[in-house]
Amino acid sequence: MERIAGQFGRVEPRLRARQLLLGLLADLPRKNCWTIAEHTGDATPDGLQHLLGRAKWDADLVRDDLRAFVLEHLADDQAVLVMDETGDLKKGTRTVGVQRQYTGTAGRIENAQVAVYLTYTSRHGHAAIDRALYLPKSWTSDPDRCRQAAVPDDVGFATKPQLARQMIERTLDAGVAAAWAAGDEVYGDNPHLRAALERRQLGYVLAVSSTHRVPTPAGGQRADRLAKKIPKRAWQKLSAGRGAKGHRWYDWAQIAITAPGPAGHQHLLLRRNRRTGELAYYRCYAPRPVPLSTLVKVTGSRWTVEETFQSSKTLAGLDEHQVRRWDSWHRWVTLALLAHAFLAVTAALERRDQTLADDGTSPNGLIPLTCNEIQRLFTALTARPTRDLAHRLRWSTWRRRHQARAQRSHYRRQAALQP
Fold it and tell me: Right CATH number for 59-328 from 1.20.140.10, 3.90.350.10, 3.40.190.10, 3.40.630.10?
């Protein structure tokens, strides 16, 4: 709160922002202005609704403070900027950006609000540092509808890759140290985004579709057809990173690409599931030569954005807002990301001070503190103490020991199944 206090000209919105952050970090079954106001002792939700809708403060300046906070603790010159979108299911038609559209949250077309997020992923940890609301053409082509939702006049239609590009360029212009970008097919199949990253000399590993055409001396060829020409000896077994149940082992191969554009090294990277044989395809660019293992590591970092979505929604109420207007959405989401960044950074600092075994446990037989566990302790000891300290710490130790036993069991089972 000391970091962002200067963004509020009056003490009242500053205290309301603190109140909202404490509510977002609280152990509530659902988080919105009503439930948080009740939890923090207010008689009505009017104060929090005023903070989100009418109070004078700039959510973009708080976003810049959020980014600086994350960089202060997680900075890494080999960090990856991971871009992805997520949808929040909403009812009605008046909430800004809502329409019937596909969202991976539901896995089908639903009435939803979609936004693109940028996650900073380093060897120390990961947290979201920027956000952009996607406005479909049904909104940008209807000035009256935009006016009712207080959408600024200078906001026009932008595709998801364009929103991701704007966030990446804003991040790099702020002096953020990063070496790579990663994203799924929505971003990898977009040539304008890839070209923009190459101009900034930012390496990337972006998923592409099987029908993606790859430049070759014989002309453009589909990625899936090139995959059929790879000899068996070209495949290598490598881990894409450690997950909750062990290392994510896949077979990998790469094909060098000669493509127009800034100097650098381009490849088509292929990933093969060792059990099903299913293939995935990636366009890669690096300003300097890098080994295959580095590209695989960057590919694995893309899953951190999914972890960020799940954690920020479950623990910080990212998707539980009940606001309809442009400014209100940006204010809620920015404070929710700030609340989640507090948990993510605290967890990263805990891991940084420990030497972990190969199975991810510490010498005392516990897994490191997770965002979930930090939120439980924070709620119990700071936000709303309902039990004595010894009781809460005993339960924390029990949960972490139980999780450590489960994790060791997963690793042993995986080791037994490996050829």
Answer: 3.90.350.10
Q: What is the Cβ-side half-sphere exposure of residue 274, based on CA atoms within 13 angstroms? A: 15
Tell me the CA distances in angstroms from 314 to 30, 136, 208, 260, 319, one per residue in order. 9, 26, 30, 44, 9
* Residue spans of alpha helices (H) in 200-325: 223-227, 292-301, 303-316
What's the pTM value of the predicted model, to 2 decimals?
Answer: 0.88
pLDDT one-digit tens code per residue, 117-137: 999 999 999 999 999 999 999
Interatomic CA distance for residues 348 and 369, integer angstroms: 9
- pLDDT recorded at residue 385: 44
Domain ranges of the chain: 59-328, 355-417
Q: What is the DSSP letter of 319?
A: T
Q: For residue 263, count other CB atoms closer than 10 A to its CB.
A: 8
Predicted pLDDT at 220: 84
- Please name the residue that has the structure tokens 């207080």: 150
The mean pLDDT value for 222-244 works out to 90
